[in-house]
Amino acid sequence: PGRMGLGLAAGMAAVGAALRVLRRVYGKRKRVAIIGAGISGLVSAKEALDAGLIPIVFEKASSIGGLWRTDDGFVWDSLRTNLSYHTCCFSDFPWTKTRIELKNAFPTAKQVVQYLEAYCNKFSLLKYINFDSEVYSVQQLDNGAWRITVKKDIEKISHVQVDFLIIATGIFSKPKYPNIPGISELSPSCLIHSSQYKKVPEGRKTFIVIGNGFSGADIASELSEAGHTVISSVRRPTYFIKRLLTKKKIPLDLLFYSRENVIKVSYYT
Question: Tens digit of pLDDT for each residue in 39-68?
């Protein structure tokens, strides 16, 4: 979840450029369906408006945010972004333009949702979003248009025809388990995916955390700090670096993602 900032500028530029080309080619205002109101879906809607298109966003949940939703998303209570607010933002809407009070350089999941809400309000996106609307199927017609079948409010089925389609459901919408013999036989009470993790359990227990990506590393660290025994299972040796450089407390992403050709690391450390 902490990877919100990676590639946002490039992604926004690519989406915007593609949509503007469609606008020039087809002339009159066309409609584009966008599946998902997470980060990618919201950016796509905003760029569609900028390109002169009409976005129609379908979101199966009752609010925006995708995996960042704190109630039914894939984040845990203490999660913070692994990128600072300097880079974990949209290029046309920095955190400084919001009224969100940040006491830490790395926003919480709740603050990320607040940021996305502020983004929607800034660019008037909410009126284009259909909540509680789950897309059941998409079909491209002979004329190149798309027919979208949507289930609204549990029982109401409707069909919408649009000119273009953007699928913005993300790559984290379905948990992926490793193919390990016997793992399917474990009790649900002792096996969870990182997307289901919410907070540190009580007591003193022994955990094995499989994988050392952003989620795995953060969860293993939190469990260990709470007094649990943690075994981290990884494919290859990994170096873990703190979010802030020790001497001047500078967020690492300001160093690693700098556009400078030459960076004197000794200055920061």
Answer: 999 999 999 999 999 999 999 999 999 999
